[in-house]
């Protein structure tokens, strides 16, 4: 046992103030030492002692930042209110020092904000929970934030989307370190999918953006009631009683999308609802949402959500 432990890959889970319990628990459980797992895991904080967590919980950690000197991989779980302030300077410095020693840094969900504070994500792709992607991009504009993926592997820095995607990231690292067989074995132990298709876009409640104002709200509502039939920019402008040029310009200002991009996403959203709530076939749904053919629906579904209609239905369809 001691020789196995001596050869184990050393993983530290860094618990920051407001840490989310699931985000902490995922890497702690995945990498916990056992005969089949060549890993050893320690949970630490900015200092040893009690760390206030999110959701009414607290964590008693035996070690402080010295655990990062021991670790070969450091996980940074997500935490509450990540945009309010950066982590303590000593945490940022410890992460930078660990990275300089060759330690791999991996963030789960909003842990990406702590990793971003080091500057190590500048110029790289990264992700975080879909609710915070725009906040992360605004706070750290040099990062190429990808809101449509479950995780991003940039070699020595990795990020993942919401909490459950932390499982995807951990399985990816096991697969990267020791191959598919061990990764599949871990997935079976967790009762998790060894690999999930699609990205986090499929988990966003709506594909169409929340309007920034009330301009053209009535026309948007009018269009949503008529998605089954053909709709053009001219149709929308006529309903709004403005020129097509004025309509297009103001619509982009209001929503961030061109009128036809918005219509496409609205049609995909309606298709999502029909896949979840009905037994209609893909061809029937495509016709009902104004996308014509099943092939057309599959193409746009993949582009917008990063998955197929059949995979989406398998994941989200209501039981019974």
Structural account:
- By secondary structure, the protein is of the alpha/beta class.
- The protein has 2 domains: 2-203, Class I glutamine amidotransferase (GATase) domain (Rossmann fold, 3-Layer(aba) Sandwich); 217-316, Homeodomain-like (Arc Repressor Mutant, subunit A), CATH 1.10.10.60.
- Helix content is 45%, strand content 13%.
- A 6-stranded mixed β-sheet has the order 2-1-5-6-10-9, sandwiched between helices. Strands 3-4 form a two-stranded antiparallel ribbon.
Largest sheet: 6 strands, mixed
Q: Structural class of the helix and strand makeup? A: alpha/beta
Head-to-tail CA distance between termini: 49 Å
Estimate what percentage of residues fall within beta strands.
5-15%
CATH superfamily of the largest domain: Class I glutamine amidotransferase (GATase) domain
What gyration radius follows from the Cα positions, in whole Å? 23 Å
| CATH-assigned fold name of the largest domain | Rossmann fold
Annotation, overall tally of beta strands: 10
Helix content: 40-55%
> So how many helices?
15
Shape: elongated
H/E element string? HEHEEEHEHEHEHEEEHHHHHHHHH
Q: Which stretches are low in confidence, meaning pLDDT under 50 for 5 or more residues running?
A: none
């Amino acid at each position: 046992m001691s020789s196995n432990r001596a050869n184990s890959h050393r993983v530290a889970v860094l618990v920051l103030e407001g840490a989310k319990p699931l985000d902490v628990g995922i890497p702690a459980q995945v990498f916990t030492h056992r005969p089949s797992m060549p890993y050893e895991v320690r949970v630490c904080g900015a200092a040893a002692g009690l760390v206030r967590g999110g959701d009414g919980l607290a964590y008693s950690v035996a070690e402080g930042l010295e655990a990062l000197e021991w670790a070969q991989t450091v996980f940074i779980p997500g935490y509450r209110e990540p945009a309010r302030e950066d982590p303590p300077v000593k945490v940022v410095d410890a992460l930078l020092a660990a990275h300089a020693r060759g330690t791999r840094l991996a963030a789960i969900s909003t842990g990406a904000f702590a990793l971003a504070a080091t500057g190590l994500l500048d110029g790289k792709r990264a992700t975080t929970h879909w609710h915070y992607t725009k906040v992360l991009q605004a706070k750290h504009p040099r990062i190429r934030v990808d809101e449509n993926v479950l995780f991003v592997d940039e070699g020595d820095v990795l990020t993942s989307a919401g909490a459950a995607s932390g499982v995807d990231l951990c399985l990816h690292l096991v697969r990267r370190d020791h191959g598919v067989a061990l990764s599949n074995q871990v997935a079976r132990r967790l009762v998790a999918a060894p690999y999930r298709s699609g990205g986090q876009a499929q988990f966003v409640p709506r594909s169409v953006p929340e309007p920034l104002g009330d301009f053209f709200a009535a026309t948007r509502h009018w269009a949503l009631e008529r998605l089954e039939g053909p709709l053009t920019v001219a149709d929308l402008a006529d309903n709004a009683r403005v020129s097509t040029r004025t309509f297009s310009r103001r619509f982009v200002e209001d929503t961030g999308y061109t009128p036809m991009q918005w219509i496409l996403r609205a049609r995909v959203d309606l298709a999502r609802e029909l896949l979840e709530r009905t037994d209609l076939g893909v061809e029937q749904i495509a016709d009902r949402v104004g996308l014509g053919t099943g092939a057309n629906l599959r193409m746009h579904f993949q582009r917008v959500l990063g998955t197929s209609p059949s995979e989406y239905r398998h994941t989200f369809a209501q039981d019974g």
